[in-house]
Amino acid sequence: MGASGRLLHAVLMGAPGSGKRTLALRITKHFQLQKFSSGDLLRDNMLRDTEFGVLAKVFMDQGKLIPDDIMTRLTLHELKNFTRESWLLCGFPRTLRQAEALQRVYQIHLVMNLSVPVEVIRQRLSARWIHPSSGRVYNLEFNPPKAVGVDDLTGEPLVQREDDRPETLNERLKAYEDQTKPVLEYYREKGVLETFCGTETDKIWPCVYAFLQTKVPQIDQKASVTP
Ligand SMILES: Nc1nc2c(ncn2[C@@H]2O[C@H](COP(=O)(O)OP(=O)(O)O)[C@@H](O)[C@H]2O)c(=O)[nH]1
Ligand SMILES: Nc1ncnc2c1ncn2[C@@H]1O[C@H](COP(=O)(O)OP(=O)(O)O)[C@@H](O)[C@H]1O
Asked: 10 Å Cβ neighbour count for 114?
């Protein structure tokens, strides 16, 4: 629920590697929001070799976006599971057509945009490791796993994302500039955009926390900003 008691629909945006997933995990730990990550859903389908996963891999491996109609249908289908809960979208919408399709079904109350310099992003993604089935994300410098190469909770192996290689990353950054940045303008015009700038998630997080405190109930009212 939002501060006014209504269900809250929020979106977290930012370039690849800007820290969306890292922040989304902190947000959902502290606030009553269900996370939906389009990238995690795609990778889950790839792991299970579904028809959709096989198709998505072709685009992801080239650093290209999945076609709008497929991505929108899949996301709106998943969101039906959250009809009684407030939610946070991470990685969707990424194009104007996706944003418009979402707007036809749901009112979006707030959009948080992470603005992180591109050289910081390149550095981070060269050291990103993920646990594919949970979406947990690590970084060898920032938040290394407790034991080298394995997930803290399950002990399963971590992997580096194929699309984090420098040449694919260039394509993804281009897709972000060309196709996703216009979505920020779309939400700015609607008056729901809030941008957080910085080079460190630990410095951005207290600002996001303070912002959300005025909008969303916390899971534990006595909890502090500690990640
Ligand atoms: N060095 C550093 N790495 C970070 C910081 N915040 C997040 N990361 C790492 O940067 C990478 C990208 O973050 P992630 O949340 O996956 O970004 P997303 O692609 O926007 O979802 C991951 O390896 C994170 O662990 C930070 O403040 N400093
Ligand atoms: N909303 C979306 N529309 C189209 N493609 C998407 C969308 N979300 C994720 N993808 C695909 O999944 C890839 C990885 O996305 P994601 O896991 O959100 O990572 P990142 O934010 O680090 O780029 C994208 O490069 C794209 O191919």
From this structure: 21
Known catalytic residue at 20:
yes
> Nearest-CA neighbor of 21 among 109, 188, 139?
139
Binding residues: 38, 43, 64-66, 91-94, 98, 128, 137-138, 161, 172, 201
For the stretch 101-138, pLDDT in tens is 999 999 999 999 999 999 999 999 999 999 988 889 99
Minimum-distance ligand 2 atom for the alpha carbon of 67: 4
Residue 4 has pLDDT above 60, yes or no: no
Joined together, the tokens standing for residue 91 give 């990685």
Query: Is this complex's ipTM strictly greater than 0.95?
Result: yes
Give the orientation angle of helix 38-47 with respect to helix 51-61, to 10 degrees. 120
User: What domains appear along the chain, each with residue ranges and CATH number?
Assistant: 9-213 (3.40.50.300)
- State the binding site for GTP: 128, 137-138, 201
pTM of structure: 0.93
| Shortest-distance atom of ligand 2 to CA 15 | 21
Show Cβ contacts of residue 190 under 8 Å, excluding neighbours closer than 6 positions: 108
